[in-house]
Write a structure and sequence with these properties.
About 45% of the residues lie in helices and about 15% in strands. The protein is an alpha+beta fold and about 300 residues long. It has two domains: about 100 residues, Phosphorylase Kinase, domain 1 (2-Layer Sandwich), CATH 3.30.200.20; about 180 residues, Alpha-Beta Complex (Aminoglycoside 3'-phosphotransferase, Chain: A, domain 2). The strands form three sheets. Strands 1, 2, 3, 4, 5 and 6 form a six-stranded antiparallel sheet that branches. A two-stranded antiparallel ribbon has the order 7-10. It has a two-stranded antiparallel sheet with strand order 8-9. A hairpin with a 5-residue loop joins strand 3 and strand 4. Helix 4 packs parallel to helix 8 and helix 6 packs across helix 9. The longest helix has 20 residues.
Amino acid sequence: MSVALPPGVQALAARGPDWAAWVDRLPRLVRDLLAEWALTVDGEPLHRGAALVLPVRDGHDRAAVLKVQRPDDESEHEHLALQHWHGDGAALLLRADPHRAALLLERLHPVDLTDHWDLEACEVVAGLYARLHVPAPPRLRPLTAHVERWTTALADLPRDAPVPHRMVEQAVALGRGFLADPASTGTMIHSDLHYGTVLAADREPWLAIDPRPLSGDPHYEVAPLLWNRWDELDGDVRGGVRRRFHTTVDAAGLDEDRARDWVVVRVLGNVVAALGEREPDGDWITRCVSIAKAVQD
């Protein structure tokens, strides 16, 4: 059966030759998976992030989705996280082919937390932390590998970089502290848990999807809730960021100081990554600096 690729998936080809080659191979790959796993198409294909998501039914007439994405570092261990969670707080993994970055998952509802009051949504996400934060399997990449890269790059920034130098120095010091702290690794974290990566479900009200798992520190998880749904904070960025931060920390029972330090390190890591782009996104840099300021005011 031929599956038409959604425009969003077709557009991924513009990212470069490797992406174009993957998009070109994708229809055949999907046909092969449908045949090998005895799946029947049960809806229109969807584009989600860098993945094709296809509603299907399996051989037991169970509603599911086939998710196929281009293999990369972020998606490499998604199946490991889902296997370890076994549906506890996250979508249930039914089958996986890691070499082809293909997953068969329970079908959830196309409703996320985006339209919920942001503080209520933060409480929902915080409620998932304890269930998802389990001992990390040994194959996961350590969070500290990212921190080491960010810290080195931040330390090398010139003083005239478009970010407060005192904030850069602070992030370097905090990053080096985390690198020396054994608690910075050892817990499996989702690392991209926010309003759009939690979906409504039948067996539970809300379940997490799309993990980018790392062996890390639960306090690292908070930042995406601060930079997503940014337009809603217009007029009160400081207050809005702080309310989200404190709501999440309190609901999850996290250490406030440690969570704050991780937010600073993470958003400054975003800044240094943006500055390395050919055309740095000034709005994104400003957003990250604003978050670092807000959580410390």
